[in-house]
Amino acid sequence: MAAASTASASQVNGSALPSQGDKYRGAVVEDLQLPPAFALPSDEAISRAIESAYERDFSYIPVLDRHRKPLGYLDVAALKEKWEAGQAAPDDRVIIHLTKFNRSSSHPYTIITPSTSLPELEEFLRHNVFAIVTDYSRKFVLGVATQQDLDNFVSRRG
């Protein structure tokens, strides 16, 4: 667990300020009310990927293998740059342009589920641009969470 989530209230000028973990008031990823995930199969054409990303206003799209296991993701802005520079053809498959997840003993896979605490998600997002939210057995991609989702959650709660 992140150190921020275990911090206690601090005293500044005699008044208690909430710790970093308290700003979420015990909330979990499910409380973010993320839209349902949109993911692409690895053999999808990048023309469809770009079109789908703009329709949904997504910056990152998870890419799945034929068993629906996450392989990596498409960075839509980077893919668009490649397209405009002539480095990507409309019929290219997304697997050619995906960023693979770095899974190794030095970079263990972090599971983010609907019950993951928001301080844990925040700590994960300090080192990653987004988080893929999966079910508990990692068989289904449920959503994608970003720092903006956390910021919006805090601002909605006041």
Keywords:
alpha+beta; CBS-domain; globular; CBS_dom_sf; CBS_dom; CBS domain-containing protein
At a glance:
With 158 residues, the chain is an alpha+beta fold. Helices cover 30% and strands 20% of the residues. It has one domain: CBS-domain.
Please give the structural blueprint:
Blueprint: H1 3-6, E1 10-12, E2 15-17, E3 40-41, H2 46-56, E4 60-64, E5 70-75, H3 76-84, H4 94-97, E6 99-100, H5 118-125, E7 130-134, E8 141-146, H6 147-157
Parallel strand pairs: 3-4
Antiparallel strand pairs: 1-2, 4-5, 5-6, 7-8
Pfam family, one: CBS
Domain CBS: 29-76, 106-152
Biased composition (Polar residues): 1-18
Walk me through the structure:
Helix content is 30%, strand content 20%. The protein is α+β, with helices and mostly antiparallel strands and 158 residues long. The strands form three sheets. A four-stranded mixed sheet has the order 3-4-5-6. A two-stranded antiparallel sheet has the order 1-2. Strands 7-8 form a two-stranded antiparallel ribbon. The chain starts with a helix and ends with a helix. 22% of the residues are buried.
Provide the CATH superfamily.
CBS-domain
CATH class: Alpha Beta
What is the 3D form?
Answer: globular
Low-confidence stretches: 1-18
- When the domains are counted, the total is 1
Strand order, largest beta sheet: 3-4-5-6
CATH topology: CBS-domain
Rg over C-alpha atoms, rounded to the nearest angstrom: 18 Å
The ordered string of helix (H) and strand (E) elements is HEEEHEEHHEHEEH
Number of strands: 8
The residue fraction in helices comes out at 25-40%
Query: Strand share of the residues?
Result: 15-25%
Give the count of helical stretches: 6
Structural class determined from secondary elements? alpha+beta
Could you report the average pLDDT, rounded to the nearest whole number? 83
The major sheet is characterized as: 4 strands, mixed
